[in-house]
Write a structure and sequence with these properties.
By secondary structure, the protein is an alpha/beta fold. It has 9 helices and 8 strands.
């Protein structure tokens, strides 16, 4: 069977400090052929890069999460750009807007989001977008920034409404689905994604969060992306192997700097 890629996980979080090697091996043994480890703040840049350099088929992103925007209001754009020269850095982010928790001032979030977009535009590395309770603002920024030049990207852990889904697809973006789609109370999300083209869908865990059914409630890990992918294959009424192939092909198209080595 074709392999899957967990396009968004946080393996350097403390949740994995005691058994990280086992978690990684479990993922590879569970038909997960690759993983992207996502950064959320500057202090994670070096540990994430070290992890990616240590393991084949593990890649990373560099960026500042909107929750951390306030404490990184003066982050040096050139420093992020410098990291993108590394072969293991395949994406920018995660970045974006979170007006649900609003842990950072909205103006700071907006400014850093635009800064990350500029880095994505310069490097053509895909921007990994977190957006919550900020659909309209996200749409406006993406449309405004696209006029300055193309940049690739993905709406990660998609839970937004149909308007943002449509806007993202119109701009050539991808939609990444997490274990949330398997939750019983996610009917609105399933209604929104039912007509998304299969050639624009990625799968992720966002681990250690959001464990999918049937393992909901415990710590999430990359191996569990299989449960989400299997659920979505049934949801879209296609063979699991074909869904695996399509989402993995989508990964390679978007994160085209990542080269998975099969032995």
């Amino acid at each position: 069977m074709s392999y899957l890629v967990d396009t968004h996980c946080h393996l350097i979080f403390e949740d994995f400090s005691d058994d990280l090697d086992s978690v990684i091996n479990n993922a590879f043994d569970s038909n997960v052929g690759g993983m992207i480890v996502i950064s959320t703040q500057e202090k994670e840049f070096d540990p994430i890069l070290s992890l990616a350099q240590k393991h084949k088929n593990i890649f990373c992103s560099i960026g500042i999460h909107p929750h951390s925007a306030q404490s990184h209001s003066n982050i040096d754009k050139e420093k992020i750009l410098e990291y993108t020269n590394n072969d293991n850095v395949v994406g920018i982010g995660e970045t974006g807007l979170d007006f649900y928790y609003e842990n950072s001032d909205k103006k700071v979030q907006l400014r850093l989001f635009k800064m990350h977009i500029d880095i994505s535009r310069k490097t053509q590395l895909p921007i990994i977008i977190h957006t919550r309770d900020a659909d309209q603002e996200t749409i406006e920024i993406l449309n405004e920034e696209t006029k300055k030049g193309h940049f690739p990207g993905v709406i990660h852990c998609f839970t937004a409404g149909p308007e943002l889904a449509s806007a993202a697809l119109d701009l050539g973006f991808y939609i990444s689905l997490s274990g949330i789609v398997t939750f019983k109370n996610a009917a609105n999300l399933r209604e929104t994604i039912k007509n998304i083209p299969l050639d624009r869908i990625l799968v992720e865990t966002d681990s250690p969060y959001l464990s999918p059914e049937p393992v909901r409630g415990g710590r999430n890990e990359p191996a569990n992306v299989v449960h989400t992918a299997d659920y979505l294959a049934d949801f879209y009424n296609i063979e699991k192997d074909l869904f695996y192939k399509k989402t993995t092909n989508n990964f390679h198209k978007l994160f085209n700097k990542a080269e998975i080595i099969n032995e």
